[in-house]
Amino acid sequence: MRPVCCTHMTDTSQNILEVRNLSKSYGALQVTNNVSMTLKHGEALGIIGPNGAGKSTLFNLIAGTQPVNEGQIILSGQDVTKSTPALRCRMGVGRTYQIPKPFNGMTVLENLLVAATNGGALSLPDATDKSLEILEDLGLGDLADVPASQLRLLDRKRLEMARALATEPSLLLLDEIAGGLTEDECETLVQTINNIRASGTSIIWIEHVVHALLAVVDRLVVINFGAVLAEGDPQETFNSKDVQEIYLGIEA
Ligand SMILES: Nc1ncnc2c1ncn2[C@@H]1O[C@H](COP(=O)(O)OP(=O)(O)OP(=O)(O)O)[C@@H](O)[C@H]1O
Fold first, then answer.
1. What would the pLDDT profile of 33-70 be if each residue is shown by its tens digit?
2. What is the mean pLDDT of the chain?
3. Distance (Å, rounded) from C-alpha 170 to C-alpha 16?
4. Ligand 1: which atom is nearest the Cα of residue 58?
5. Structure confidence by residue, pLDDT tens digits, 143-168
6. Which of 59, 95, 179, 203 is the most exposed place for a label (fewest CB within 10 A)?
7. Hey, whose CA ends up nearest to atom 9 of ligand 1?
């Protein structure tokens, strides 16, 4: 395990994402504190940390829904720190939200079409083909014409992921997608994420369900009080004394 602050890779062609010295405050509350990290093309990175540590905020900064106070975000070699969320989405950043936010008045398919025609910029016929394919892959094929408001939790989470995939992301940000699922459902979700990953999509996954996360990611970053506490091999990092003590409150 490498301690604290992730080192930068200077060869940007290998990195789909570089986050450089990011800081973010809300009033007096510093939520992101000088965070740096990189993600290689095709890599899957896990993020864990206590509640309120600033994990989702990091996604908001990367996706552009919140402005940074300091630092830089480099996407495929291009500085997008000041770019709009829409532009970042067109450049390949797809995300899910911790609390699924579908358009409840629309069907499952219509939800994907909105994402595919706007975020993904596909024509309607292409968007329809693409959306049906994604729904099939994610086990939602039979629910295409069902209103989103009628879905059970697992299917709402799948829809959240399907909407992100409909924008054709090269970088997928998954925010606590496994919470509240049964063990079997969790296993299905892990398979789905591994399939997405096998198709070449780079992934950053924030998750409290650590065993699910460890079944997917190549590398783990631990955030505490807005800063990087540790990063490295997933199991080794998770088992380290600092992480066990600070993240789980266990005295190792
Ligand atoms: N828009 C905002 N305005 C003010 N405070 C905010 C805002 N967004 C987040 N915060 C605060 O920033 C801190 C970090 O929130 P964040 O959601 O990033 O944590 P998290 O690590 O994702 O937590 P959890 O694991 O509980 O989801 C919290 O104290 C939160 O209340």
1. 999 999 999 999 999 999 999 999 999 999 999 999 99
2. 90
3. 8
4. 18
5. 999 999 999 988 999 999 999 999 99
6. 179
7. 57
Residue 173 C-alpha from the chain's centroid: 2
Q: Is the pLDDT of residue 1 over 90?
A: no
Please give the model's pTM, rounded to 2 decimal places.
Answer: 0.90
Testing ligand 1's pocket by substitution, the residue of 55, 99, 205, 209 carrying the most ligand atoms inside 8 A of its CB is 55
Kindly state the tokens that stand for 248: 């789980």
Q: Which residues line ligand 1 (CB under 6 A)?
A: 26, 31, 49, 51-57, 98
What average pLDDT does the segment 105-114 reach? 96
Cα gap 242→229, rounded to integer Å:
8
CA 188 to centroid of chain Cα atoms: 18
Which sign does the torsion angle of CA 210, 215, 216, 219 carry? positive
51 C-alpha vs ligand 1 centroid, how far in Å? 8
Would you tell me how many other CB atoms lie within 10 Å of the CB of residue 227?
Answer: 18
Rounded to the nearest 10 degrees, the angle between the axes of helix 153-166 and helix 183-198 is 10
Out of 56, 204, 223, mutate this one to test ligand 1's pocket (max ligand atoms within 8 Å of CB): namely 56
Strands (E), 14-68: 15-26, 29-40, 44-48
Cα 88 off chain centre by: 14
* From 29, 65, 224, mutation site for ligand 1 pocket: most ligand atoms within 8 A of C-beta: 29
Structure tokens at 99: 């609390």
CA 23 to chain centre: 19
Residue 65 C-alpha to ligand 1 middle, in angstroms?
13
